[in-house]
Amino acid sequence: xxxxxxxxxxxxxxxxxxxxxxxxxxxxxxxxxxxxxxxxxxxxxxxxxxxxxxxxxxxxxxxxxxxxxxxxxxxxxxxxxxxxxxxxxxxxxxxxxxxxxxxxxxxxxxxxxxxxxxxxxxxxxxxxxxxxxxxxxxxxxxxxxxxxxxxxxxxxxxxxxxxxxxxxxxxxxxxxxxxxxxxxxxxxxxxxxxxxxxxxxxxxxxxxxxxxxxxxxxxxxxxx
Length: 224
Description:
Blueprint: E1 10-14, E2 24-29, E3 36-39, E4 52-56, E5 67-70, E6 77-81, E7 96-100, E8 105-107, E9 112-116, E10 123-124, E11 134-135, E12 143-149, H1 155-166, E13 170-175, E14 187-201, E15 209-216, E16 221-223
Antiparallel strand pairs: 1-8, 1-13, 2-3, 2-7, 3-6, 4-5, 4-7, 5-6, 9-12, 10-11, 12-15, 13-14, 14-15, 14-16
């Protein structure tokens, strides 16, 4: 993948959680990379390539509880981009998909967005025998920082302000420019982003700006 401009990059934020789409039953899921799932013919119209889906109940550890992106749809099947169930030994036992389509997301206009993964913190296991003993900790999921300009008429900005107030985790999605990936449809998905910081700046003679921060509950999914 070559260097690319951010021209054409867009950011999307999940609308207030609590009214999630009804789950769709999975009729089969393959032990492959990526896993290909099949749904009933009557349900396939609920999906389109690029949608974000959450998987549950398949009995495949590589899938359950995780978020993926819908790939190219063929008949009533599609790959879960970003998935790898090739190491699973058991077969899928049903399960369901919760689909977050464009209708469940709102475009969030920002002037910059930055992802930072926090370094792993050593865990203190000191005892009277070895007071300084430590073991390596797990890296934290990290944070996403954003900057932009206030526009109280834009649904995306208003949704971000609601996110700051309700402190509920949301899906945060970066759709990469078409030139960024060979497929022309790359994404970075943050499945659990909680808005934990917000500030506004009003300077005479300049546009009013804002800064914000999301704390991540899980690592991002890269579909590149």
